[in-house]
Structure formats: structure tokens, C-alpha cells
Design a protein that fits this description.
The protein has helices at residues 40-48, 54-67, 79-87, 132-139, 182-189, 206-212, 245-255, 273-276, 301-316, 332-356, 368-379, 382-401, 431-441, 447-451, 480-493, and strands at residues 3-4, 19-20, 74-77, 101-105, 143-148, 160-161, 165-166, 195-200, 215-218, 237-242, 285-288, 320-323, 408-412, 455-462, 468-475, 498-499. The protein has 500 residues and is an alpha/beta fold. Helix 4 links the parallel strand 4 and strand 5. It is globular and about 55 Å long. The two termini are 28 Å apart. Residues 1-25 have low confidence and may be disordered.
């Protein structure tokens, strides 16, 4: 029997259990340190009151980094910078998360640190400045430990780049933690920290949250600035992955808001999201569906059952649930046009990376699947790109019209269980087959990046295979408040990661 041995952490009194492939491990057993089991809000209170020092909390997180090193969640560790930041934080610090550890997804720039985008093409590249999200996290008092792993350019829903190797799921290290924020989700699930920075361009927050039994909110388009290096992004948004709705709501308050030069921004909510998440709910009308938007990719029965059980929970809380399907839900053309935009973004990154080396892109620069998309992007005329963009916008109008009749939509997050490491090969000689595998795994998430609506993955259940089963709630335009309030009520009444 194969076993994965974990190194002994620095903290005393802790014994790391061996992992048995035949019995997936519940990550709640990953740390016996009560401090690391607390939410970010709770950790912040302990530091502010002087009950725990920021340095002590940092030491605990670093010990857990060492203990979980076999999961390969960290792409860069800035121990020296984190220690200096922690030592500067004293009791009474008024910043809301002073002294709480934070990891940044490696696709997002952190000044003076590697900015590799999960790619060997950028292996020696450094970020010239912080992203605005990183700056806001610093201003909130978070101690930045370093960066988490992602797939190359965040392309696929697994985290197994050729540059860094596979990142593993803490629930079962033979399985993927999802992607592209797989390192972030695995770090939180493994108990290194209670919340981690993430981003979502086609499901990259919600997919790993579902794989790792966590809360993953994709905010509305324009809610969080993508500056200073991007003025706008039609598909992608920044965010976090956490263990609790309260942490996600407070982080949304910190990260959201207009930045000078933004070309798209969402209007501010009437109250902070932390307060709106606690608002009493009137009975809601919630649509339910389990059919896949891509023909031939029917969901695994466990995901259908999860949606059914979640629907019964919501009915029990006084809401009305109806089976309904948005117009144009099954649309092969939608995926086709989405990939035009996706390929253009891949090509842009590849050309930029090659330009840093003073040359044009070459197939050896990137993984085979990346090069496949790069070639498509380079060959796509500007007119075809604009036509695809307008087609997607038009399709989004019909989908969003559905939310004039329903407050929320309940769906699966995944169609398959978290897939085994290596089953989506980005170096495959048949890149189309690899992409088809990605679509088969995660057909429910990307459409809401097209519409720009908020959506959240909630870790309600654990299947008989011992792995988490998430469900997705989609809100109407700009309705993060409603999503968070319903999510908070589910967390309060039912809790997370309950066995079927």
C-alpha cells in the first residue's frame, strides 16, 4: 500500500497522520492546533486583544506549510518578509485583519516577488508593483506569506503545471484540488490559513472550493478592480476562498470598490456585505436545474443528489423551489464563442512572455494545451473576436432575463467527482481531448463569467467516497448581498461538509 509521509511540523504536541490511499482523509484532522482552526475574523480579534501575537500565529501557519509540503500548494514563500510584517503588528492595531496570514494566487502580481503565471515562460519574471487587490489586503493588515500554485495562465480546472508539478487535494492527495485557484483552496483546506486570495475567469474560485469543501464566491463583474495592469476584464474577477461565509463577506468589503482608471465598476452596496450577509430573508423564489449546458456531459448522480438535498434544505427554510431552465441554457455556440475570447487571452500572455525574452513565441515556451489555444488566438481575426464578444453579450441578456422571474438559481458546481491527478494532461499530444476533459468536469461555471453575475460554491455535503460535494447558487446582477445572506443561513442552520 502506498503511503505519503509528511514532515514533522515545528509545533510541539502535534502528530501528522499517515495518508492511506484507500481511505481519503478528512482535512479537519490536518491540524490539531486550535488557533489554525479559527476563522480569519476570530484570529484578528485574538491578535487585536493581545491574546495571541501576530508572530505566534505566523509560526503556526509556517509550521503547517511544512507539515503539508507534499500537497505542493506554495509556489513562493516569503518567510523573511512575513516575519518582519508580523513583528511590526502590536495589540490594538485597528486594521480589520492585522496579523492574519494571507497567500496570493501566483497569477496576481506582488511587488518584488516572482510573477510566473504558472509558466516556465515567466520563470524569471518579477512583478513591478502590487495588484490593487494585494495593496488592499496589505492595508487591511494581512501578513503576506507568499504565493499559491495555479495551472499555466489559469487555463484548466486542475492545478498541475509543468513548471511546478501537481498540487494535491487535502481530502485525497490522489485527486485534484481543482483549478485554477487550486493552490489557494488546498492551502485553506489543509489548515495553513482560513482564507486565501483567488481569482475566477471560468470557475476558478468555485471549482476548487467545491473540490476542497470550502466557500467560493465569484463576485460580479467590476466589483473588484483588476488594476493596475488590466483596465477591464470581461471574464475574470478577483476574490477569495474561505471556510466561512462571514470571512468571505468581510473580504468582499475590503476588496471591492472603484479604483482610479477602472473602465468597468459595479455600484457600491447600500451597506457593507458583512452586514448584508446577516440580513433577515423574505421567502425567495429559487430555480433549480441539474442538466449540463454542454450536451453529452451529464452530471455524476452524487451531484444531482446534492442539488436535490440542497433544494429540500432551502424549502425547509421557507423558500419556493421550482425546476426551470434559462433560455438558451444548452448552447454549443456559447462554448465556441467563449473559447475565442479564452484563446485570445492565452495568446496575449504567450506573446507578452516571449517579448520579455526579445523574440516571438515558440511551442517549447509553454505547455501543449497552452500552445494549442495560443495558435487559435493568433489566427483569430479582430473582427471574429469582436463578433464573439458581441454574441456572448447578446446571449448573456437572455440568460439574465431569467432572473427577472427568479431570485436565485441552484445548480451543481461540478459534473464529475474531483478527478485523479494526471487525468487532464496539458502536455497531451491531443490537446483537444484534454480540453474536452476539462469541459466534461466543469460545465456549470463559465457561463456566469460570461453574464458577469455573482455565483457562490457552498460545501454542503460529503459523498460516500469521502470527498466534498459542493452546490452552486447564482444571483441576479449585482446581488452578492442575497447570495451571501442565503449562504449564511445555510451555514448557520445546516453547517458544512455533512455526509450524505
Amino acid at each position: 500500500m502506498n503511503r505519503i509521509q509528511h514532515t514533522q511540523p515545528l509545533l510541539t504536541g502535534y502528530s501528522w497522520p499517515e495518508y492511506d490511499e484507500t481511505q481519503p482523509m478528512n482535512p479537519r484532522s490536518f491540524t490539531q492546533n486550535p488557533l489554525l482552526q479559527k476563522s480569519a475574523l476570530e484570529q484578528a480579534v485574538l491578535i487585536r486583544t493581545g491574546e495571541v501575537s501576530a508572530t505566534h500565529l505566523l509560526e503556526a501557519s509556517l509550521a503547517q506549510v511544512e507539515a503539508t509540503s507534499d500537497l505542493n500548494v506554495i509556489s513562493f514563500l516569503d518567510t523573511e518578509g512575513a516575519v518582519a510584517a508580523a513583528r511590526s503588528i502590536l495589540p490594538g492595531d485597528p486594521r480589520p485583519f492585522a496579523g492574519v496570514p494571507m497567500l496570493i494566487k501566483e497569477l496576481t502580481p506582488v511587488a518584488g516577488q516572482p510573477w510566473n503565471l504558472g509558466s516556465r515562460l515567466f520563470a524569471r519574471h518579477q512583478a513591478p508593483a502590487d495588484a490593487y487587490t494585494v495593496r488592499r489586503l496589505r492595508e487591511a493588515g494581512f501578513v503576506l506569506l507568499g504565493q499559491t500554485t495555479s495551472p499555466e495562465f489559469g487555463i484548466v480546472p486542475v492545478t498541475e503545471s509543468s513548471l511546478r508539478g501537481p498540487t494535491r487535494n487535502p481530502w485525497d492527495p490522489t485527486r485534484t484540488p481543482g483549478g485554477s485557484s487550486g493552490g489557494a483552496a488546498a492551502a485553506v483546506a489543509a489548515g495553513i490559513l482560513p482564507v486565501a486570495h483567488a481569482s475566477d475567469g471560468g470557475g476558478s474560485i468555485r471549482i476548487p472550493a467545491a473540490c476542497c469543501g470550502l466557500v467560493g464566491l465569484k463576485p460580479s463583474r467590476g466589483r473588484i478592480s483588476t488594476g493596475p495592469f488590466l483596465g477591464d476584464n470581461f471574464l475574470s474577477t478577483q476574490g477569495v476562498i474561505s471556510r466561512s461565509v462571514a470571512d468571505s463577506a468581510h473580504l468582499l468589503d475590503i476588496l471591492s470598490g472603484y479604483e482610479v482608471g477602472d473602465s468597468t465598476w459595479a455600484p457600491a452596496p447600500p451597506q457593507p456585505y458583512a452586514a448584508l450577509a446577516q440580513q433577515p430573508l423574505k421567502p425567495l423564489r429559487i430555480a433549480v436545474l441539474t442538466s449540463s449546458p454542454t450536451p453529452g456531459h451529464d452530471p455524476d448522480p452524487v451531484h444531482v443528489e446534492a442539488v436535490n438535498k440542497a433544494a429540500r434544505m432551502l424549502e425547509g427554510m421557507g423558500h419556493t423551489l421550482e425546476w426551470a431552465t434559462p433560455p438558451g441554457w444548452i448552447s454549443p455556440k456559447l462554448l465556441e464563442q467563449f473559447m475565442v475570447l479564452w484563446a485570445a487571452g492565452v495568446a496575449s500572455n504567450t506573446v507578452w512572455g516571449a517579448s520579455l525574452h526579445g523574440r516571438t513565441p515558440q511551442p517549447s515556451d509553454v505547455e501543449a494545451l497552452t500552445w494549442h489555444f495560443c495558435e487559435i488566438g493568433l489566427k483569430t481575426p479582430a473582427v471574429a473576436y469582436l463578433a464573439a464578444l458581441e454574441t456572448l453579450k447578446n446571449h448573456a441578456r437572455s440568460l439574465m432575463g431569467f432572473f427577472q422571474h427568479y431570485d436565485l438559481l441552484l445548480t451543481p458546481v461540478l459534473a464529475l467527482r474531483p478527478i485523479p491527478i494526471g487525468s487532464l494532461d496539458t502536455e497531451s499530444p491531443d490537446p483537444r481531448a484534454a480540453f474536452e476533459r476539462a469541459v466534461q468536469f466543469t460545465p456549470y461555471t463559465a457561463v456566469w463569467n460570461v453574464t458577469g453575475q455573482p455565483a457562490i460554491s457552498l460545501p454542503l455535503f460529503v459523498g460516500s467516497d469521502g470527498l466534498p460535494v459542493g452546490v452552486q447558487l447564482v444571483g441576479g446582477p449585482l446581488r452578492e448581498d442575497l447570495l451571501l445572506a442565503v449562504a449564511q443561513s445555510l451555514e448557520t442552520v445546516h453547517g458544512w461538509n455533512r455526509p450524505f
